[in-house]
Sequence to fold (111 residues):
Amino acid sequence: DRVSIGAGSVIACGAHVHTHSTVKRTCSGGAELLEHAPTAIGSGVSICAGAIVLMGCSIGDRAVVGAGAVVLEGARIGPGETWAGVPARCINRPTDSEELARVTRMKGDLR
Fold:
């Protein structure tokens, strides 16, 4: 499986993005196969320093994953959301007016 990363996204120093897991294989003494799942990162996403994104996650456009956060396998992060913690959880979900203001600022920054 693979990872897809949208335009303008930033993956900071020490961050890890996974598309596989070795847990079952290791615990079974090699009898089990590696597990795989695609990981998708939208456009304009910020994955901060030391964050870990496990396999099968989907991160929406303009989302933020905080420093040191661990996004669990299969998590779905919505557009513009901010997730932090271990395990990571949503700590900010923008309102429509906040999202409009953010997009307007982004368009200005791209000029």
Q: What stands out?
A: The longest strand covers residues 89-92.
